[in-house]
Design brief:
With 658 residues, the protein is an alpha+beta fold. It is built from 23 helices and 21 strands.
């Protein structure tokens, strides 16, 4: 059993979360295991998540409940062994809870606006250049002003007529390291590809205009918008590739260019694309898929290097293919398979929503959400009085992380959420201060305390809201349960099955010896096979093999003088069941006469016929390890199944969709 199969019951992302609390309705018990219950809604949520085409007939329910029982048995055993108390697993779950909570801790209205804005921007691509003057977000006022002035000085030079790229690359110009090669030109981009403040300013600036300095976490940017164009959409292509590594010699580059040009000529002569890919493409990831690549372009996360993208989008209709294109990876002939305009807003909404939640945009929606919570929970400040102690006692040791609140003798409320009777006190603020001193700039204590108070109010209110999410939102509660079960299950399976199988070398060896006849080599040929494009080349290879001093290298060099495509060589121990050119051939030791198979011509030099034989453990260790894991899991499941009572309410199960 491979490891990721365990994750079948885990959530890969947040799908279909409700933004309002659901009404409480009776939730019947579907299963009880080891004294713990599983409700109908919990089971249904997991079932629907793992079945894109759910069926509620008896046979489907019986099959799924058996898998679910095994899952719950493993979870029960993991909890019995204390896996849910392991510190690193508790920390991992807390991290997931934070991620899962994020969609509930935003202003939905503001968030929806930003999602729509992002989609609208995805319909347009912007090309811009920039000059960066670095400035830390917590820089002193003097350093911040200096950076601003340097950026404005660059803008002034450009407005006086100096070339943007020249200013960017000059002394006191851009501090972006890439400026040396691109002159500040960032090419075309769309939503989410650059930091939000930069994106926002670029989209709101007319073509040809230059902005005032724009602040991001990197510093100040002067942005010149060079062009805007409609998004090119998404495209699916296939490619035939001849590899050329970055360290290739000039001769290797020339040979690759010669080969790709020959292949292009053959395509123009109506050679089969699929056959050409099968015979000549050097991209192992796409060769068996006729060269097909994933869809890329706007609205997708898949990107290609610019020269490849430009050549792809230049193709006018499906079936067209490009002239050879050079990239850092080699030479490509690109065939257009399918083009689509940007997908509809509805189909992209969830994907965009996830990106917005992770982006700097999220800060906007969270700030407005906190303001709404303040109104909802009747926020009430205690004013300046409880802050006076901090104004007097925050000193130079604070920014060094050495500040102490030992002298704080009171615990007065600083603010309250009156509607839920929740008070936030001096000592709570003090704990926040002690944990959040890094990265702050030096300023008077009163200013620093007020800034930290604002951060603490937001943090504390969100923390309170997060703590009650499980009570307000059943979907959230169910997700937390799923992640909890998945995390401890993965760990217990690692210990009991996966890691045990790899570490228990004696057990693995013993399992292998008991099952040796299962791990066999088929009949194979130890041979050198010359695959030729023509009968003439095959006859030449056969003739050259007569002289034993001719090596494979010499034969290839001789036959490929006029074309790199004339002959290729396969060698070593070949299985005729998988290398079908050898299947059902009566071969003799030594050289064999040329024969034709699937429009190619073959010459085989047979060294030895290898009979069916047992494999050694080293020759099949991966398969044996996998089988041993299955064996260990089966035994473990039989053992734990005896420990726990399981009760299933089949009336509820068989009426799951009612």
């Amino acid at each position: 059993m491979i490891k990721h199969a365990l994750r079948i019951l885990l959530v890969a992302g947040i799908i279909g979360l409700n933004s309002t609390a659901q009404a409480q309705t009776p939730d019947p018990i579907l299963m009880e295991i080891g004294g713990k219950t599983v409700t109908k809604s919990e089971f249904l949520q997991i079932y629907l998540k793992n079945n894109s085409d759910p069926k509620f007939d008896k046979a489907s329910m019986d099959e799924y409940i058996e898998m679910f029982k095994r899952f719950k048995l493993k979870v029960a055993e993991a909890e019995s062994l204390g896996y849910d108390t392991i510190p690193k697993l508790k920390k991992e779950l807390e991290g997931y809870k934070k991620q899962l909570a994020n969609p509930y801790l935003i202003d939905s209205a503001a968030n929806n606006y930003l999602v729509q804005e992002a989609y609208d921007r995805m319909r347009t691509e912007v090309r811009a250049s920039h000059i960066l003057i670095k400035c830390d977000l917590n820089a002193s006022p003097k350093d911040t002003l200096d950076a601003w002035n340097k950026a404005m000085a660059c803008k002034a030079r450009i407005l006086k007529g100096e070339d943007f790229a020249f200013v960017a690359k000059s002394k006191n110009g851009s501090e972006d390291p890439s400026v040396v090669t691109n002159g500040g030109d960032l090419g075309y981009f769309t939503a989410f590809q650059l930091v939000y403040p930069f994106e926002d300013k670029a989209y709101n600036t007319p073509v040809g205009k230059i902005t005032d300095p724009v602040r991001t976490r990197f510093g100040y940017h002067i942005i010149q918008v060079n062009d805007k164009r409609p998004t090119r959409g998404t495209i699916k292509v296939a490619h035939l590739m001849i590899q050329v590594g970055k360290s290739a010699t000039e001769e290797q580059v020339q040979n690759a260019e010669k080969k790709i040009n020959e292949l292009y000529d053959k395509l123009n002569a109506w050679e089969s694309w699929d056959e050409m890919i099968k015979a000549h493409s050097e991209d192992p990831g796409t060769q068996k898929k006729n060269g097909e690549l994933p869809m890329f372009g706007s609205g997708t996360t898949q990107r290609m290097v610019p020269v490849f993208e430009d050549a792809s989008f230049a193709l006018k209709k499906d079936g067209d293919y490009s002239r050879p294109v050079k990239t850092d990876y080699g030479y490509h002939i690109i065939k257009r398979l399918e083009w689509k305009n940007i997908a509809s807003f509805e189909s992209l909404k969830k994907e965009i929503q996830t990106k917005v939640n992770k982006d700097e945009r999220a800060k906007k929606t969270q700030d407005s959400f906190v303001e709404k919570l303040k109104k909802q929970y009747k926020f009430k400040s205690a004013g300046e009085a409880p802050l006076a102690w901090f104004d007097k006692n925050i000193d130079s040791t604070y920014l060094q992380g050495k500040w102490s609140d030992d002298k704080l003798s009171t615990d007065l409320p600083i603010f309250e959420l009156v509607g839920v009777n929740k008070k936030f006190t001096q000592k709570m603020f003090s704990e926040f201060l002690k944990k959040n001193y890094r990265g702050l700039k030096k300023e008077d204590s009163k200013t620093l305390v007020r800034k930290q108070l604002k951060s603490w109010e937001k943090s504390a209110i969100l923390e309170y809201e997060e703590a009650i999410l499980a009570d307000k939102y059943p979907d959230y509660k169910a997700l937390i349960k799923e992640y909890h079960d998945g995390i401890i299950l993965y760990e217990v399976m690692s210990d009991k099955v996966w890691n045990k199988a790899t570490k228990d070398t004696a057990g693995l060896r013993n399992f292998f010896e008991k099952n040796r006849d299962k791990y066999m080599f088929p009949m194979r040929y130890d041979a050198i096979v010359y695959e030729c494009l023509s009968s003439k080349n095959a006859k030449m290879a056969y003739k050259m093999l007569k002289r034993k001093k001719n090596t494979s290298k010499e034969i290839i060099e001789k036959l490929n003088q006029s074309s790199e495509l004339n002959v290729t060589v396969k060698m070593n121990k070949l299985d005729p069941e998988t290398y079908t050119a050898l299947k059902n051939r009566e071969l003799v030791i030594g050289r064999n006469k040329p024969y034709e198979f699937e429009n190619k011509f073959y010459v085989v030099y047979l060294k030895e016929k290898l009979p069916v034989m047992r494999k050694e453990l080293s020759e099949t260790k991966g398969l044996v390890t996998s089988d041993y894991q299955n064996y260990l899991e089966k035994n473990w499941m039989e053992e734990i199944a005896k420990k726990y009572n399981i009760t299933i309410n089949y009336d509820v199960l068989y009426n799951l969709n009612k």
